[in-house]
Design goal:
Elements lengths: L7 H7 L2 E3 L7 E4 L3 E5 H14 L8 E5 L10 H16 L2 E3 L6 H8 L6 E4 L13 E4 L2 H8 L4 E4 L2 E8 L8 H12 L7 E6 L8 H9 L8 E3 L4 H9 L19 E6 L6 E3 L7 E3 H4 L6 E5 L6 H11 L9 E5 L3 H9 L2 H7 L3 E2 L19 E4 L15 E4 L2 H10 L28 E2 L4 H4 L23 E8 L6 H4 L13 H4 L11 H8 L2 E5 L11 H8 L2 E6 L4 H9 L3 E5 L2 H6 L5 E4 L2 H7 L3 E5 L2 E6 L4 H7 L4 H10 L1
Parallel strand pairs: 3-4, 3-6, 4-5, 6-7, 9-10, 9-12, 10-11, 15-16, 15-18, 16-17, 18-19, 21-22, 22-23, 23-24
Antiparallel strand pairs: 1-2, 2-8, 5-20, 13-14, 21-25, 24-27, 26-27
Helix pairs in contact: 2-3, 2-5, 6-7, 10-12, 10-13
Length: 647
């Protein structure tokens, strides 16, 4: 019997589908093979698993990384790291110690496996799609559920096929490919889609090049990005000593895609995203000559050996400009060791670069904040306002080649104008492999004896009451378009150390949107937030839902939502609704009261919801599944899970 030809995405989903069907928009459940958590989100995951009373994870592989909160200016971060390590021991989870590296490239090196599913409490988890995996970012509680053996529930995306042709010119690299996608489509162009790359141009992109592209698919709002598992993936796994984990996974001849796109790699040029959105992409030549004070190389968006080696080759026997600080952020211990062995580190240090520990560091605002009122060029995935740690920052996103060229010249520079030959750098086939500080899961019998170490900053997860069927609440915040979770709940060294303390971190809620929210929320009590298009884009951190919920946020009404934040709101009992008529958004103001009647009945019916606001009738839509409606009226996902077990 002949089967309909399938693309790689359809093969991955079909092999893990436990409920629903593969019709775009349909509710589906997926079996999850692997999970990834990091320390900025993993503390909540571990607290959620504690609330579920889970004894041991049910996945094939679960790994906990410490890569975000590495600054130890007091006890809070190291206390959380001890809690995470003992939790990992107790639950049978791999533990990657501080300094081992960023979760995404480290996971790709040690655990990535074609054909598997990966759910991560980090929005850049889709980077693993570079190996032919179905890798999706989600809120921590969804990852906790997967670790407990539950399926991941979402809606079947459309599959957007992007055919790559040709090969990249000199001075153009993988970062420019994903910047070209952002130039064409903006930060919400991929919502509701999985982007699958195929075509002859793949022959010229290594597995780590593909990581760069898949990583920043998150900035398009895509559910994930997928590449085939081919010779490039085999070469990567062979080099990492894991050749037995490779198998071929290619699209069938004659398969189809819901959307189509072609990129001729040979026609690309160096690109740059200007402040303060990954979607503000222009050719580097258009902003060349602007001064800068900082250039930054590293992060999960440019994590490979060649991303550092190309910079080292450009800087060999040269010196960076006197007014530029060049920050080098290695992405894994193994890559740092290999760069050292091959002499690249000496070139970087000799040119005046500053070397930092392997981790996320300045990408998440943990150190390396730029000077005020200056330009910073970074190879990181995001330049949302204030994410760098400087409130009024001016961050540009670019390739390592552009960052290095600009550091040499002291102004933003198109690397094609340097007047030097393009260095030929390749990934080594014999990288140093260091797994000595990657701690394997403990035997179950020993794990049961582990005592969780909780520092004084760690608070148990608060309980939230169920959504009520009748509400009359004021609007407390009116936000605009493309508001990110970094603006709802800031990152950085001041805020993230409180990630395991909801009452304390709640004080920072909406700091990037409006002043004084926490104080007003305490005075007002239960309230509503309204927003524009693509509300909640960016990071998967569920604190952007939990903390405002703790302060009384019960409903969010927006023109549209980013996928992960929409699900995080539901998971913690906050009702997400969208405007049927955009004029209603314009008419509503802060302090306007909105009333709902028979809300549960309306949501269960599946149709529009009506509400009253100052004598005006609002028609509001929702995209909730019956399961999500149950979760809302249970008080959130953990309470719903308890109810299911009790039943």
């Amino acid at each position: 019997m002949r089967h309909t030809p399938r693309n790689v995405t359809q093969k991955l989903i079909a092999s893990h589908l436990v409920s629903g069907d593969m019709t775009p928009g349909a509710a589906i459940g997926l079996n999850i093979d692997q999970t990834l958590t990091q320390d900025a989100t993993g503390t909540m995951v571990m607290l959620e698993l504690e609330a579920m009373a889970l004894d041991r994870v049910k996945t094939e592989v679960s790994a906990q990384y410490v890569d975000h909160n590495l600054i130890q200016e007091d006890n809070k971060n190291p206390d959380d790291h001890r809690f995470l390590q003992t939790s990992a021991e107790r639950l049978g989870v791999w533990f990657s110690r501080p300094g081992n590296g960023v979760s995404h490239p480290t996971h790709q090196q040690r655990f990535g496996k074609p054909g598997k599913t990966l759910l991560g409490s980090d929005s850049h988890t889709p980077a693993a799609g570079s190996l032919g995996m179905l890798a999706i970012g989600a809120g921590g509680i969804d990852v906790a559920m997967a670790m407990a053996g539950e399926p991941f529930h979402t809606r079947m995306p459309e599959v957007w096929g992007v055919r790559l042709e040709g090969s990249l010119p000199d001075w153009v690299s993988a970062k420019d490919v994903i910047l070209e996608m952002l130039r064409r489509h903006g930060v919400s162009g991929g919502v509701g889609c999985i982007i699958e790359y195929y075509g002859p141009g793949l022959e010229h992109l290594s597995a780590m090049d593909r990581h760069v592209i898949a990583n920043m698919g998150a900035e398009l709002g895509a559910t994930t990005s997928v590449f085939p598992s081919d010779a490039a993936v085999k070469a990567f796994l062979d080099a990492e000593g894991r050749g037995e984990d490779w198998h071929e996974l290619l699209p069938d001849d004659g398969c189809s895609y819901d959307r189509h796109e072609t990129i001729d790699l040979s026609q690309l040029e160096p690109l740059i995203a200007t402040p303060s959105s990954p979607g503000n992409v222009v050719p580097v030549r258009e902003v060349a000559g602007e001064p800068l004070s900082q250039a930054y190389v590293g992060s999960s968006a440019n994590p490979g050996y060649r991303d550092f080696a190309i910079v080292a080759a450009m800087l060999k026997e040269r010196t960076i400009d006197d007014n530029v600080s060049l920050e080098i952020n290695p992405t894994s211990r193994s890559i740092l060791e290999t760069l050292t062995r091959d002499g690249h580190l000496l070139n970087l240090l000799g040119a005046g670069a500053r070397l930092h520990q392997a981790g996320c560091n300045g990408c998440i605002g943990m150190g390396q904040a730029p000077a005020n009122d200056t330009n910073s060029l970074r190879t990181v995935p995001r330049n949302f306002p204030g994410r760098s740690g400087t409130r009024e920052d001016r961050v540009f996103l670019c390739s390592p080649e552009t960052a290095a060229a600009s550091a040499l010249k002291g102004v933003i520079t198109d690397p094609r104008t340097l007047g030097m030959a393009y260095p030929q750098v390749r990934e080594p086939n014999d990288p140093i492999i260091n797994t000595r500080t990657l701690i394997a899961p403990m035997e179950a019998s020993k794990a049961r004896k582990v005592h969780l170490i909780k520092g004084p900053n760690i608070e148990s997860l608060p309980d939230f009451e169920p959504l009520e069927t009748q509400l009359d609440l004021p609007i407390l915040v009116k936000a605009g378009d493309d508001v990110s979770t970094d603006e709802i709940m800031p990152a950085g060294g001041e805020v993230l150390p409180y990630r395991s303390n909801i009452p304390r971190i709640a004080e920072f809620s909406f700091r990037g949107v409006v002043d004084g929210y926490a104080e007003r929320a305490r005075e007002t009590g239960d309230h509503i937030v309204i927003g524009g298009e693509n509300y909640g884009q960016g990071s998967s951190r569920e604190h952007a839902a939990i903390a405002p919920r703790y302060l009384g946020m019960r409903v969010v009404i927006a023109k549209s939502f980013a996928r992960i934040h929409h699900q995080n709101l539901v998971n913690f009992g906050v009702l997400p609704l969208t405007f049927s008529d955009g004029d209603d958004y314009d008419a509503l103001e802060v302090d306007t009261r909105i009333g709902f009647d028979k809300l549960q009945e309306a949501l269960e019916a599946g149709g529009p919801v009506t509400a009253q606001a100052d004598g005006r009738t609002l028609t509001l839509e929702h995209a909730l599944t019956p399961r999500q409606v149950e979760i809302l009226f249970s008080g959130g996902l953990i309470a719903w899970m308890r109810n299911q077990k009790a039943a």
